[in-house]
Amino acid sequence: MNLVALGASDLRVTPVCLGTMTFGEQVAEADAHAILDRAVERGVNFIDTAEMYSFPTRKETYGGTEALIGRWLRKNPSVRGKVVIATKVAGPSRGMPWVREGLGMTGADIVASCEGSLRRLQTDVIDLYQIHWPERSVPAFGAMYYDPSTERSKTPILEQLQALDGLVRQGKVRHIGLSNETPYGVHEFVRLAEQHGLARIATVQNAYCLLNRGVENGLDETMHRLRVSLLAYSPLAMGLLTGKYDQGGLTGEQVPAEARLKKFDEVRQRRWGRPEALAGARRYNALARQHGLTPTRMALAFCYTKWQVASTIIGVTSLAQLDENLDAWGTTLPAELLAECDRIRWELRDPAV
């Protein structure tokens, strides 16, 4: 895998990134360290985490994934200079008082969260520091429509950007990014950075997969014109696009007990648990098999080869899953298969948006 540039920054990363939100919840520490070791052995240099992980988030595991990665880095000091570490400051609480009190996310909150992440990761600098979700009210995590009446913003984007810029100037953060953002948010962060001479966002981390191609509804043009890179998360739609739920539904006996959509009610209650999402996944998975591909390989190859995507974030719970996901790199999907994907999308739209 050749390295790719992230936005206008000097960060150079592999086009496949190891996501870690399962570490410390579904994946025990020893197994997580083995996955991290294997990923590096196979050439992956990009690791993504967040202060709120493990997921599903709860008070007892808040910050646990970062701490787990920190212990891995301490055991492998030579690795730190070879890997790009990305993490995220949680947005407004969303019912998580153990993250912070109140509805907002002030500049001081951003700085305090960064300091906590640095301690847990046992590193002097975070390579890419991202806002996990907007401080303002936006349609995200399954919400489809913007509703001005729900606006409860407490902190202007400029204040957030100034806090992030301060962390960059202090050498605690190399580059900054956003997540779960809209075209407006990306434009505003870039506009204010250019107007005030502040740190410029390099990336946006949004969901992107066959069941959720919302990025292609305008955000892709925004990112292209403003030189901001997409980090695509949930390329397998929380497992729907692996085929594991095709026969037994989300909670059937055929589904592995540890499968996230079966095990966690919180996950099922989001966009991935919609009946329309499962129906759509079955269509795409059948298409993959018709072309002699596993559903996993087709879904990942779709993301790996799209011009919109700089790096695809894969989340795994075993070495076997890691290898399967990395082995899909280099797969080229024929034009007729891609055309059929577009036809399915035209019919079903984005059932997991």
UniProtKB/TrEMBL annotation:
Domain of life of the source: Bacteria
Any one GO molecular function term: oxidoreductase activity
Keyword Transport attributed: no
NADP-dependent oxidoreductase domain mapped to chain residues: 16-344
InterPro entries with a match to the protein in the record: AKR_Detox_Biosynth (IPR050523), NAD(P)_OxRdtase_dom_sf (IPR036812), NADP_OxRdtase_dom (IPR023210)
The entry's keywords: Oxidoreductase
Keyword rRNA-binding: no
Residues annotated as transmembrane: none
Pfam families per the UniProt record, alphabetical: Aldo_ket_red
Entries under SUPFAM superfamilies matching the protein: NAD(P)-linked oxidoreductase
Name of this protein: Aldo/keto reductase
